[in-house]
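Per reviewer request, we include the raw input and output of the structure prediction for the construct analysed in the revised manuscript.
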Amino acid sequence: MSPLRWGVVTAGTVVHDFVCAISTLPECDHKVVAVAASGRDSVQKFAELHGIPSFYVGFEALAKNPHIDIVYIGAVNSVHYEVAMKMLEAGKHVLCEKPLCVNEGQSKALLNYARERKLFCMEAIWSRFFPSYNHVRERIRKGDLGNVKEIIAELGSPASKMERNRIRQLGGGSVFEKGFNNIQLALWAFQEAPDKIVVNKCIQNADNDYTETNVDLHFPSGGVAKFKTSAVKELSNVAVITGSKGSIKLHEFCCPIELTDIDGTVRFYPLPSSNVECIMKNSVGLRFEAEECRKRILAGDSESQVVTHANSLAIARVQDAIRKRLGIETAEDYTFKS
């Protein structure tokens, strides 16, 4: 059986780590065959570093390559829709970094088009494919936690040197980039959408970008998720999921290889080493979402049941609601209606 042939868009940090993660999977299953970025020098060096046979200046040329099955998009958030649509138009499956698009309307348009083309399209919520998440999901399914009552999570790290994480116009900041991870965890654990959103705190920097936010999500079941995000300082990056029978703590909950179980046992899920060293923490864990893509494409599925299209739209809807409360608007809010 032929390997799944990957093209990757941009030659930045997250794409570097994604390609490193792919290198830990069997070559008979996955192969990165092309990379595209805006700068010739950077994309050529990237291709040489990772042993990628083809490189392009600009993503349009990559879209025309007939030897690519799926494209991983790690560009800045504000261009996700444009790049993903171009790849779908070219008949390629898509794995797009989170957040999928700038708002719910844009995400809906993209996912509808993918379904029309009968192509696989998934938002890259890598957290959900870690073994730690699988363990928590099984605990919840079996009733070991009882009814989920509360989630307390905080995620923060200085992002001043990473434009995609910092600048709101590129889809960055504590609402778009950091806050996404807290929202997806809450909706994943409660398995429902919130019916009340309370913004308790928000701090702006000199560029009027929201760098810190504290938000509570209240759910119809009576549960609540309380989260804190910061794009300027380091936080614990821990999430505690509490049910009527106990709690589980996810350490580095965006990419957890360690958890403290309901009985106090610390469980560790080590990751393999990549050929080229990753830049971000636990990034070899990106391998799990890549393998999910391969399995779903082989099965002829248009979406994953771990990150469904409905999941992506629900998360976008919550982000839109938080932005509205903070008075944040984007041009896409006027051109893409939910």
